[in-house]
Amino acid sequence: FNLKWTYVATVIIFEVQSVLCGAAPNMIAIIIGRVIAGMGGTGIYLGCLNYFSSLTTPKSVESTLF
Q1: Is residue 38 part of a domain?
Q2: Which domain holds residue 32?
Q3: Separation of alpha carbons 11 and 13, rounded Å
Q4: pLDDT at 5
Q5: Where exactly are the transmembrane stretches of this chain (predicted)?
Q6: Neighbouring residues of 29: CB distance < 8 A, sequence distance ≥ 6
Q7: Which of 18, 31, 55, 60 is the most buried (most CB within 10 A)?
Q8: Nearest to 13 by CA among 33, 27, 31, 30
Q9: What integer pLDDT is reported at residue 58 of this predicted model?
Q10: The predicted structure's pLDDT at residue 66
Q11: What pLDDT shows up at residue 56?
């Protein structure tokens, strides 16, 4: 998958579900919205880790660790 578009998709999932949680008419809708928003948030976190790992070189990682 393309890293940029996967990251953008997870941000959109998170934002849309957060809006739906804010406009939820009952508790069931809030719970379902938060579960899906959590999936989007996890995707954002993992996308950041992948993005940072693709930008670093083995030399820069070595200099950071020691």
Answers
A1: yes
A2: 3-53
A3: 5
A4: 94
A5: 31-52
A6: 20, 21
A7: 18
A8: 33
A9: 81
A10: 65
A11: 86
Question: Which amino acid appears at position 52 of this protein?
Answer: F
Q: Which stretches of 1-66 are DSSP H helices?
A: 3-22, 27-55, 58-65
Whole-angstrom Cα distance, residue 15 to residue 7?
Answer: 12
- Return the structure tokens found at 16: 């849309």
Number of domains composing the chain: 1
How far is residue 55's CA from residue 52's CA, in Å, rounded to a whole number? Answer: 5
pLDDT tens by residue, the chain, 66 residues: 788 999 999 999 999 999 999 999 999 999 999 999 999 999 999 999 998 888 888 887 777 776
**Which residue reads 């998709």 in tokens?**
9
Within a domain: residue 61?
no
- Residue 60 resides in a domain: no
| Residues in the chain, overall count | 66
